[in-house]
User: What shape does this take?
Amino acid sequence: MEKEELINRYEYYLKVISEELQRIFEYQREYICCQNGCSGCCEKGMYPYSELEAEYIKIGYSRLPDEIKEIVKNNLKKLKAELAEHKGENFLHDCPLLIDGSCCVYMYRGIICRTFGLITENSEGKLTIPYCAGTGLNYSKVYDPEKKMILEEKVEELGYNVMPKAYNLSRENMMNLSFAKTLGIEFGESKMLIEWLIPSLLE
Ligand code: SF4
Ligand code: SF4
Assistant: This one.
């Protein structure tokens, strides 16, 4: 498939999953505190991206004003040095695309960035609670950080209308959705976002 056609189809895929995620956020809204300027999920993390997602975010980067591109490049230069020091380890870092508390390529962000803030589970049923549940934000009123679990009795006690719900929003699941396959979308290899961006934008 021509690259342009693949990007067109991926944009359609993003539109569909974003509408679905919007419905989920709306359903869970009693537990969600996300708002402009809150960016904890883009800090001190790791951001796995497929080749296709990385290609798309690079399109977003190419459309940024020069001064913002410079900031991103400077962030990447610092991360490149730190990444070399942490070779072979899990390297938690701020996303280089986070500028003044906002994502500079928000419309182009990948799958994992679109699911930040929700409770997710993978195909084996392993739950991931948003990290900010432990910092007084999403789900925090019904989350026990010591037991690392949602307390159902709190849901009733505090009068919530719906239960906290986990969705299978693992990247693996999202990339294997049947409609993505029908569209012929190939996501390609996955690695950390900075591993895609450093060679493309700095070298
Ligand atoms: S790409 Fe944007 S949304 Fe995703 S981690 Fe980076 S700053 Fe956050
Ligand atoms: S997921 Fe948590 S840290 Fe991220 S924007 Fe929402 S409330 Fe803030």
Q: What stands out?
A: The mean pLDDT is 94. Helices lie at 3-27, 51-62, 66-85, 111-115, 152-157, 171-175, 178-182, 193-202.
